[in-house]
Design goal:
rod-shaped, mainly alpha, 3 helices, 129 residues
Length: 129
């Protein structure tokens, strides 16, 4: 009786291993076929994402700078000595410069994707490990 059970288990193991090998070979073929598309999608997504962030942060920084300039001009008219306008201008300009720097960093990523896509891919895959 135990020999029959061992033979059944052995035959079931062989069929299970054969099916597993078929799945592995099919998955390997799929991965090889899809790898170039995946690389293209990673590059396109990174380009679009960084471009959108660069534009948004740039627009926010520019809008803030324009608003601060207009507010400072108004405050100079209301208060001739301009102490409040000076503080508002200093703080607003600092934040605006910070937003411009953030926008510049995202723009550099866009340039990196355009000029050196393999470098961007290596950095993207390094983050996955």
């Amino acid at each position: 009786m135990t020999d029959e059970v061992i033979e059944k288990v052995a035959s079931m193991s062989e069929t299970a291993l054969a099916k597993a090998l078929e799945y592995v070979e099919a998955a390997e073929g799929f991965v090889v076929e899809q790898a170039p598309l995946l690389v293209q999608e990673i590059l396109a997504w990174g380009f679009a994402e960084h471009l959108i962030y660069a534009l948004l942060w740039g627009v926010f920084g520019l809008t803030l700078l324009i608003s601060v300039v207009k507010l400072c001009r108004f405050l100079y008219k209301v208060e001739p000595d301009g102490e409040v306008a000076w503080v508002v201008g200093l703080f607003g300009s600092g934040v605006s410069v910070l937003l411009g720097f953030v926008s510049f960093c995202y723009a550099l990523e866009v340039v990196k994707i355009s000029v050196a896509p393999r470098l961007y891919l290596l950095e993207a895959f390094k983050g996955l490990l």
